[in-house]
Amino acid sequence: MISTPEYVQAIQPYVPGKPTEELERELGIKNSIKLASNENPLGPSPAALSAIRNSFSDLNRYPDGSGFYLKQALSGMLDASEEELVLGNGSNQLLNIAVSTFMQDGDEAVMATPSFVVYSMAVQSVGGRSIQVPLKNYTHDLSVMADAITPRTKMIFIANPNNPTGTINKKDEFDKMMEKIPDNILVIADEAYYEYVSDPDYADSMKYLRSEKNILILRTFSKIYGLAGLRLGYGIAKKEIISEMNKLREPFNTNSIAQKAGLAALKDKEHVNRSINANNGGKKFLYFQLDSLGIKYVPTEANFIYILVEDSTSVYESLLRMGVIIRPMGPKAIRVTIGLPEENRRFIDSLRKIH
After folding, report:
1. Which fold has domain 6-43+270-354?
2. Which residues contact residue 307 at a Cβ distance below 8 angstroms, ignoring those fewer than 6 apart?
3. Per-residue DSSP letter, 79
4. Rounded distance, CA 204 to CA 145, Å?
5. With 0-12 CB in 10 A as exposed, 13-18 as middle and 19+ as buried, what is 16?
6. Distance CA 259, CA 69 (A)
7. What's the per-residue H, E or C state across 259-302?
8. Which CATH class is domain 46-267?
9. What does residue 85 show for φ and ψ, rounded to 5 degrees?
10. Structure confidence by residue, pLDDT tens digits, 167-191
11. What are the tens digits of pLDDT across the range 222-269?
């Protein structure tokens, strides 16, 4: 029998949010809603959909392996050179490429808990060890994370905003942490939800890139741009870091449809603004309703809310039976995506029945 390393055998596969089709098959119901995966309920930009339709005739051709036009557009938007950009089949792929590029068996990575579970999975896939630092007030404790660095540390993961709590780290605390980071450590700033942030004190990760810090900023088209099904993300870092990552990046890792849709989505600022406004409206509605029910939650800077409950498994299963899919997060919390107005109302109505 083919054998695998013990550290691979120990990995528990990632379990995504349950699809509506699966739930409806299991329970024999219809019209279920999914508020589990932090997707944009408005869907993609109309311009992106048009670009998708217009790209079908070229599907017999390989995509542009460099993603030239999309990187050109990102370069102009971010004031970063194209050599400082890398495209991925979702930002998750770039996360895995970074770990494979800069870590090896026995190395360590520091991360918060709870945070995005894929960090520890990626580290374990190369035989690395995750040093997990508990959140403080539902937020990354950057000072303690910096103090957790050892001679074996190669990476620090920071989800900003954090998934699942929706909290952010602000400029001052980020500055203090970056001052403590040795030059041989790569900071990965996962900013999948950064477009939703309204707090003016939100840490500006691009500032650290400009000051020649070893930071890799990961962003995605899966959230605000509504292109989760196409799998498209990008990374920003010093060109030396990007050059090393490109050695492990597959030749055609972003498909032609995703590249064209992403390019069109970037240009449609109105759709981004509509998405932000819809999210803010949904957030206010859910805050008001949760307050009226006496249910505690963590104020969010993202497109989901971390809600405190007595028994997350019981709440999750009860909501499933009512056709509402959310995510249980540990024994006493659930995470709920901010959806369309009718989806938010249905979630609250269902929650009220079991509260």
Report:
1. Aspartate Aminotransferase, domain 1 (3.90.1150)
2. 290, 295, 296, 297, 298, 333, 334, 335, 336
3. T
4. 19
5. exposed
6. 8
7. HHHHHHHHHCHHHHHHHHHHHHHHHHHHHHHHHHHCCCEECCCC
8. alpha beta
9. -125, 145
10. 999 999 999 999 999 999 999 999 9
11. 999 999 999 999 999 999 999 999 999 999 999 999 999 999 999 999
Find the length of the chain: 355
Q: Is the dihedral of CA 60, 66, 69, 73 positive or negative?
A: positive
- Per-residue model confidence as pLDDT tens digits over 87-142: 999 999 999 999 999 999 999 999 999 999 999 999 999 999 999 999 999 999 99
Quote the CA–CA distance of 50 and 104 in Å, as a whole number.
43
Token readout for 306 is: 């971390």
pLDDT of residue 49: 98
Query: What is the three-class DSSP state of 15?
Result: coil
Show me where the domains of the chain are located. Answer: 6-43+270-354, 46-267
What are the distances in angstroms from CA 277 to CA 33, 42, 124, 212, 283?
21, 11, 39, 35, 10
Closest-CA residue to 140 (of 93, 179, 189, 181): 189
The encoded tokens of residue 334 equal: 């659930």
Per-residue exposure over 323-339, b if at least 16 CB sit within 10 Å of its own CB, e if not: bbbbbbbeeebbbbbbb
- The whole model's pTM is what? 0.96
Go through 129-162 and write b for each residue having 16 or more CB atoms within 10 A of its CB, e for each that does not: bbbebebeebbbbbeebbebbeeebbbbbbbbbb
- Compute the C-alpha angle 52/58/61, nearest 5°: 125
Q: Which DSSP state fits 170?
A: B
CA atoms within 13 A on the CB side of 217: 23
DSSP designation for 166 = -
- The separation between CA 196 and the C-alpha centre of its own chain, rounded to angstroms, equals 12
Determine contact, residues 111/120, Cβ cutoff 8 Å. Answer: yes
Q: What is the phi/psi pair of residue 324, to 5°?
A: -120, 120
